[in-house]
Each structure stands twice: as structure tokens, then as C-alpha cells.
Write a structure and sequence with these properties.
single chain, DNA polymerase, domain 1, hpI Integrase, Chain A, 3 domains, 3-stranded antiparallel β-sheet, 5 strands, elongated
């Protein structure tokens, strides 16, 4: 039986052509998949590391299409190629050897790669807090493993040891740590860099992250009214901030992007009103948030009659409280649930109006999310009481039955 042709060997080891070595979520092992002689093969390699899986996949592939004898030949050739590749990397690292203009081989240290990754990320529009967490995890990994460790030297064992060294904050924290390093390694391994195996982190063993979902917590009408009375009596400059968050369901401190320096939709609305007046943003019927998240267009929000009454009663209440002030003076004394203002508005709307097509536009959530989270969290009677919360001294609001 003839030896395995070199082009067939390279196709197998290079994950190209008809052979594919991929991670299987169900078995948590790499599988080799290919089609031969009219049949589709899907065989587990039994490996959790990409490099070992490719070697094993090549053996499986060669054994099926060439027979058992060719498998040993293929394994020997693969070892020779691996040794040759290591030698080339060492020569380049030492600054010796002949340079081929058609072949680009670079040996990068972890620290150099980390700095290059951080520089490339500066053009990304991500929230600064998320970016800081990502970079801190990667920096911790680089310092732990060794700044001078080169990427070709990196193995799955390095990631495993680092993962075990991290504080034991649960499976979710471990997954976030490895996800951050995996993102870094994928970037290093992509063309034109190709500094390492981009799938290296897939070989790390991780505990299952438990999944659970709980119903959103909402404010009862009496809690909502107590909150508005507390703010109205003690901090009237913040009245509209709470009224819009509670009755329109606008996310109180939601930033639209990393370069949203205004701190969120309500704060952006207040800045625009201070500059232009209410006319452009509230005409007595409709309240619009100035241009932001969706293609730079204004966003119409739910404007019930009682919110209109608050806007008319406090047109100059255009300040937003700091989160610490809110926690100390409002959230803790009244024991408000997290994100309870938006959840209450959406629940009341769904319970009293039930127009999901319009709710998608007003609350900027998918219809499936609205149906999944907000149905039956509030009775119709509670919703009607909620829409009657008005400023002190304002005329009562009548809701049609």
C-alpha cells in the first residue's frame, strides 16, 4: 500500500477541504467529520485539546481511507512536520535562517500580544466597564503565566493552572475568566497574525453553569405611589427622572454605547430640554427621547395620562440623582426591587393594554421577551391603580373600563 500523499496529509492536518475537526457540545470532545465513498463519518477523537484532536483526527481519517498501516505512517509524518515547524520558529526567534517572503512566521510574547490586542480594541464601541473587566482578566492571565512566555509555547495546561489559581467565585466567574482569555487567543490566532492556535481555550475543562430564570419583581401601586410622594416631598428636582423611569419604563441609567458620555436616555432628554425647551420632545401627547441607540433616530416612549400630568406639574425638574443617593434615600427605605421601575411600567402596560406590537416599540424589547416576562405579574385592577398615580393637587385621572 502506497504512502499517504503529501497534499492529503496537509489537508487533514490543516483542517481544510473535506476534513473538519470541530468541538462537539454534547460529548464535550472534538470530533472529526468527513465524507468518503458515499458515506458521512462523524467520529469522536476522544480529545479535549485541539492540537491532540487534529492528530487523532488525522489518524482516524487515514485509517478509514487508506487502511490501518497508513495510520502509523501518517502519525510519523505528522511528528516530523511538528518538529520541523518548531525548528523554524526557533530559527526565526533567534534571528537566523533564510527568510522566505511568501511565508510569515512571528513569535510573539504574551505581553506583546496583550498590548497589541488592547490597542486594537480601542476602535471598538463597547461600554468602558465591560472593556476594563476584559482587559483586567487578560492582564492577570499574562502576568500569572509569564510576560515573556511566547504564544507558540502556550498550552491548555497553562490556562487550566491559571483558572485554578483564580478566586473560587463559582462556575459563572470561571467561565467569564476563560471566555476573556479565549477572546484574546482567537484574536491572536486569526489571519494575518496566526501567532497561536485560536481554539486553544476550548480544551479547558469547565464546570456546568447552572441556568435559572426568575420572574421580574414589580412595585405594587402603593409602593410606586409612596416612592413618588417621597421624592416629591424631599427632592422635587428629581421628580421627572423617577416619573419617566416608573411610568414610561425608560431604563434609568442605561447607556446607549461606550461613547455615550451623558449617562443614558433620561439624562440625554433632560440636557436637550434644557437647551431647546419641551416643544421638540413633548407636545402634550407624545414624549420622545432624542436621537440615540436605534440608527440615531428619536425614540417614542409610553406616555400615559398620569405621566403627562407629572411633566406639566414639574416642567423644570430636570435633574437626575446619583445612584448612591437613590440607593440611600429611595431604594433601601422603600425596599425597591432591582430594575423594578421599568418592570413595573411594562407589566402595567401589558396587564391593562395588552397591545404587544405597540409595546415592542414603546419599551424597546422583543415581543417574545414581553410575553415571557410580563404577563400576569400584575392584575388589571392593580394596573388601573398604577395609572392613577398623579402629582399632589392634580385633578384625578379617569380610566375607561
Amino acid at each position: 500500500m502506497s504512502a499517504v500523499p503529501s497534499h492529503l496529509l496537509m489537508e487533514t492536518l490543516g483542517k481544510e477541504g473535506e476534513v473538519n475537526v470541530a468541538w462537539d457540545k454534547r460529548s464535550k470532545r472534538y470530533h472529526v467529520r468527513f465524507r468518503h465513498d458515499g458515506r458521512q463519518y462523524d467520529r469522536s477523537t476522544g480529545e479535549t485539546g485541539k492540537a491532540a484532536a487534529i492528530r487523532k483526527g488525522a489518524e482516524i481519517f487515514a485509517q478509514i481511507i487508506r487502511g490501518p498501516k497508513e495510520a502509523s505512517t501518517l502519525a510519523a509524518l505528522e511528528v516530523q512536520i511538528s518538529e520541523l515547524k518548531t525548528l523554524v520558529l526557533q530559527l526565526v526567534a533567534n534571528g537566523t535562517g533564510h527568510k522566505n517572503p511568501n511565508v510569515k512566521v512571528e513569535v510573539k510574547s504574551l505581553e506583546d500580544a496583550r498590548l497589541a490586542f488592547a490597542e486594537a480594541r480601542k476602535s471598538k464601541h463597547v461600554a468602558s466597564s465591560n472593556e476594563d473587566r476584559l482587559q483586567r482578566r487578560i492582564e492577570n492571565f499574562v502576568e500569572f503565566t509569564g510576560k515573556n512566555c511566547t504564544l507558540p509555547e502556550l498550552k491548555v495546561e497553562h490556562l487550566e493552572i491559571w483558572k485554578d489559581s483564580r478566586p473560587n467565585n463559582g462556575a459563572r466567574a470561571q467561565k467569564n475568566d476563560i471566555d476573556a482569555v479565549a477572546q484574546f487567543l482567537r484574536w491572536c490566532g486569526k489571519p494575518p497574525r496566526r501567532w497561536c492556535d485560536p481554539e486553544l481555550a476550548k480544551g479547558v475543562e469547565l464546570d456546568e453553569v447552572p441556568r435559572f430564570s426568575r420572574l421580574p419583581e414589580v412595585l405594587l401601586p402603593e409602593q410606586a405611589e409612596a416612592m413618588m410622594r417621597l421624592v416629591e416631598g424631599n427632592a422635587p428636582q428629581f421628580v421627572l427622572f423617577y416619573a419617566i423611569a416608573l411610568l414610561a419604563g425608560v431604563r434609568a441609567n442605561k447607556k446607549d454605547s461606550a461613547d455615550d458620555n451623558d449617562g443614558g436616555e433620561i439624562i440625554r432628554l433632560f440636557a436637550a430640554v434644557k437647551r431647546d425647551g419641551w416643544g421638540k420632545y413633548f407636545n402634550g401627547l407624545v414624549l420622545r427621547i432624542p436621537s440615540g441607540k436605534v440608527r440615531g433616530e428619536p425614540r417614542q416612549v409610553h406616555t400615559p395620562e398620569n405621566l403627562k400630568a407629572w411633566i406639566r406639574a414639574y416642567p423644570n425638574s430636570l435633574e437626575a440623582p446619583q445612584r448612591a443617593w437613590h440607593t440611600r434615600h429611595v431604594s433601601k427605605p422603600l425596599k425597591l426591587p432591582k430594575n423594578g421601575l421599568r418592570h413595573t411600567a411594562a407589566s402595567a402596560y401589558v396587564s391593562s393594554v395588552g397591545d404587544f406590537a405597540r409595546a415592542v416599540i414603546l419599551f424597546q424589547s422583543a415581543e417574545s421577551t414581553l410575553r415571557k416576562h410580563y404577563i400576569n405579574l400584575m392584575t388589571r385592577e392593580q394596573a388601573e391603580s398604577f395609572w392613577k398615580i398623579i402629582p399632589c393637587g392634580a385633578a384625578p385621572i379617569m380610566i375607561a373600563s
